[in-house]
Amino acid sequence: MVKRNTCVFISGKGTNLKNLILKSRDYNFPINIKLVVCNNKKAEGIKLAKINSIPLLLVNTNKRNFENLIIKFLKKYKISFICLAGYMKIISKNFLKNFRKDIINIHPSLLPKFKGLNTFKRVLKNNEKKTGCTVHFVNEKLDGGKIIVRKSFSINKKDTELLIKNKTQKLEYIAFPEAIVKIFRNY
Ligand code: GRF
Q1: C-alpha 93 – ligand 1 centre gap (Å)
Q2: In the chain, what percentage of residues exceed pLDDT 90?
């Protein structure tokens, strides 16, 4: 199978990146991770790129042209698909105009509910009965693109923010690969 040259964007721990790296070793999984972009020099996920010999681009988002630098690297590595895995920076309209292929994101709530940050806290405060994660296409609206996969679980009375976070992340490791397979199944 012809695998898509993929770039994963991260800002933190990179547990989703780790999971995608593992999955991509499967012959039938439709992506190969050719580049990691990170905007936080202290991110733990950087180690994963290094250990797995995946080229890494560390960007400084305070610099005006940082997205142009990313675009340059995407071209260099012939990237045709982007996964945002905990990338804490909004993708600009200009970037979307320049990279006309698919970009997907994983979000720790059942979108369209709880867009943005601090989802677990807000879910609890709102006395939600269930929560989960969503993988969606990225467009110019924050957490607003077409939904690809959503996975949920019921919230118990004893659930804390941390427990909800852990349960959500476990689901993310299933949902992200599932969404990728779903996107490329029809190609
Ligand atoms: C995930 O919970 C994801 O939903 C959110 O950021 C977190 C990233 O975690 N967008 P990790 O860096 O993959 O461990």
Answers
A1: 23
A2: 96
Confirm or reject: Cβ of 172 under 6 Å from ligand 1: yes
**Would you call 136 a catalytic residue per the annotation?**
no
Mean pLDDT (whole number) for 66-92: 97
Give phi and psi for 94, each to the nearest 5: -60, -40
CATH code, domain carrying 170? 3.40.50.170
Same domain, 125 and 186: yes
| Catalytic residue (choose from 107, 136, 151, 167) | 107
pLDDT-based confidence at residue 35 (cuts at 50, 70, 90): very high
Q: Is 106 a pocket residue for ligand 1 (Cβ < 6 Å)?
A: yes
Range of the domain at 86: 1-100
Choosing from 68, 100, 132, the residue where a domain stops is 100
Can you tell me the distance from the alpha carbon of 78 to that of 94, in angstroms, rounded to the nearest whole number?
19
- Preceding peptide of 112 cis, ω within 30°: yes
Q: Is the pLDDT of residue 28 over 90?
A: yes
The packing angle between helices 15-24 and 161-184, to 10°, is 30
* Nearest atom within ligand 1 for CA of residue 17: 13
